[in-house]
Write a structure and sequence with these properties.
single chain, mainly alpha, Growth Hormone, Chain: A, two-stranded antiparallel sheet, 9 helices, 2% strand
C-alpha cells in the first residue's frame, strides 16, 4: 500500500490527477480513430495491431505494404526516447513542469498533422504515433495507480485484477482503483467513438479536437493538486 509520503507526493502533482487524465484518455482514443479512419487504417496507439499487419504484409512479400505499418512503430519508439531525453533535460527546472512541455509539443505535432494532405498519410501516421508515445511515456499514473492513456490492454488487465480483489476482500480502496481503470477504458472508448463520428464529417483537420483536449490538460496542470 502507498505510504503517507507517497500520498503527499501525489497531492503535489496535477499531472497525476484524474481530471488531467480525462482529457488525455479522450485524446488517446480519438487519435487511434483518426489514423484508422482518415489515414489509411493504421493504428496510432495500438502498435500490436501494426506489428500483426506489418508481419502479414511481409509474409505476402509486400514490402511497401509492410513499411506502411513499420514507420509508426519506429516513430513510437523514437517518441519514447525523445520524451525521456526531454524529461532528463527539463526535470527540476523552474517554471513549467516537464510534462507540460510534453503536452505542448504533442499538441503542436497534432496541429501540424491536421494540415497534411492524404498524399502524406505515412508522415501523418508517424507523427501521431510519435505524439502518442510522448503521452504514454510521460503520463504513467492516475491518483498513484499505473495506467496508460493511449491503449487499453494494461488498463483492462489492471481493472479486472482490482475488481477480482474487491470481490474477494470488499476493500473500498480497491474498488475505487477498479473504477478508475474502468473509467480510463470508458473515456478512451468515448474518444474513439467521437472520433469515428466526427472524423468523416470534419475531415483531416478533425485531429485539432485533440489539440483542444491536450491544452485543457496543460491548463489543469497549473492548478494546485488539492483542487482535484
Amino acid at each position: 500500500m502507498p505510504n503517507a509520503a507517497d500520498a503527499g507526493k501525489r497531492r503535489g502533482q496535477m499531472s497525476d490527477a484524474f481530471s488531467t487524465m480525462v482529457f488525455l484518455a479522450l485524446s488517446g482514443g480519438f487519435q487511434d480513430a483518426y489514423t484508422f479512419f482518415m489515414r489509411g487504417r493504421v493504428f496510432a496507439n495500438a502498435q500490436t495491431g501494426n506489428v500483426v499487419l506489418m508481419s502479414e504484409r511481409l509474409f505476402h512479400a509486400d514490402l511497401a505494404g509492410s513499411l506502411r505499418y513499420f514507420f509508426p512503430l519506429l516513430a513510437f519508439a523514437l517518441g519514447v526516447m525523445g520524451t525521456q531525453h526531454l524529461r532528463h533535460r527539463l526535470r527540476g527546472r523552474r517554471g513549467m513542469h516537464w510534462r507540460q512541455w510534453v503536452v505542448l509539443a504533442e499538441a503542436a505535432i497534432l496541429a501540424l498533422v491536421g494540415f497534411l494532405p492524404e498524399s502524406q498519410n505515412a508522415l501523418a501516421n508517424a507523427l501521431v504515433s510519435f505524439s502518442c508515445a510522448m503521452q504514454v511515456q510521460a503520463f504513467r499514473k492516475v491518483n498513484g495507480s499505473a495506467y496508460a492513456s493511449t491503449m487499453c490492454i494494461g488498463n483492462l488487465r489492471s481493472g479486472a485484477e482490482a475488481l477480482e480483489a474487491y470481490l474477494r476482500t470488499r476493500d473500498a480502496d480497491v474498488l475505487r482503483m477498479a473504477l478508475r481503470y474502468l473509467s480510463v477504458l470508458a473515456l478512451f472508448a468515448l474518444g474513439a467513438g467521437v472520433g469515428g463520428l466526427l472524423c468523416p464529417a470534419l475531415g483531416l483537420g478533425s485531429i485539432w479536437i485533440c489539440c483542444a483536449w491536450l491544452l485543457a490538460s496543460f491548463g489543469l496542470m497549473f492548478l494546485p493538486a488539492e483542487q482535484e
